[in-house]
Amino acid sequence: MIRIGVLALQGAVSEHIRSIEECGAEAVVVKNTSDLDLVDGLILPGGESTAMRKLIDRFEMLKPLRQFAAAGKPMFGTCAGLILLAKNLVGYDFAHIGVLDATVERNSFGRQVDSFETKLEIRDIAEDFPAVFIRAPHIVDVGENVEVLARFEGRIVMARQGHLLGCSFHPELTDDHRITAYFTGMVKETLAKTVHL
Ligand SMILES: NC(=O)CC[C@H](N)C(=O)O
């Protein structure tokens, strides 16, 4: 069985665990570098990116997370997790993990209290995905190797660059597991390639 980890330093962890299990994979709570060694793919959950970064530094996980991505292992950032993955952040002169070739702006959809749900058309995944946005970021711009998978009101809200996937919203907060299933498929494909090397 494939193993998918959820970075569990802060944020919406348990819902991702449930969704991974619904998709027939083993879910692993990742709290440190040795947990990271156990997994074939990693979900970076929503929450608060600044708080998550502090904890990543405290547990000395920044370099291991970058190495995980450099090794070609799939990573999926949702909301704050997307902010962690992005190479460029509007208004900041640094990135966190900094591997997804995209420029991301934080808190793009209104004030701090704002959250909403909408149906999204997502390329290759769904025509009507129930997407929950909570103080969500959006993708301002992407590099040429990045495929845009979904937009909301013209703004990019989901994108993929090879083994890296990111979205602005919280796919784990509904009972619709199609996005987690898609990521599970990415992990399976990567493993199949690795085994044949
Ligand atoms: N739901 C979320 O993950 C919100 C992200 C948060 N606003 C941040 O900038 O980190």
Automatic annotation (TrEMBL):
Pathway: Cofactor biosynthesis; pyridoxal 5'-phosphate biosynthesis. L-glutamine binds at residues 47-49, 106, 134-135. Keywords: Glutamine amidotransferase, Hydrolase, Lyase, Pyridoxal phosphate. PROSITE patterns: GATASE_TYPE_1, PDXT_SNO_1, PDXT_SNO_2. It catalyses: aldehydo-D-ribose 5-phosphate + D-glyceraldehyde 3-phosphate + L-glutamine = pyridoxal 5'-phosphate + L-glutamate + phosphate + 3 H2O + H(+); L-glutamine + H2O = L-glutamate + NH4(+). GO terms for molecular function: glutaminase activity; pyridoxal 5'-phosphate synthase (glutamine hydrolysing) activity. The active site is at 79 (nucleophile), 170 (charge relay system), 172 (charge relay system). InterPro entries: Class_I_gatase-like, PdxT/SNO, PdxT/SNO_CS. Its EC number is 4.3.3.6, 3.5.1.2. The keyword Chaperone does not apply. Belongs to the glutaminase PdxT/SNO family. Catalyzes the hydrolysis of glutamine to glutamate and ammonia as part of the biosynthesis of pyridoxal 5'-phosphate. The resulting ammonia molecule is channeled to the active site of PdxS. In the presence of PdxS, forms a dodecamer of heterodimers. Only shows activity in the heterodimer. NCBIfam families: PLP_synth_Pdx2. This is Pyridoxal 5'-phosphate synthase subunit PdxT. It comes from Psychrobacillus mangrovi. The lineage of its organism: Bacteria, Bacillati, Bacillota, Bacilli, Bacillales.
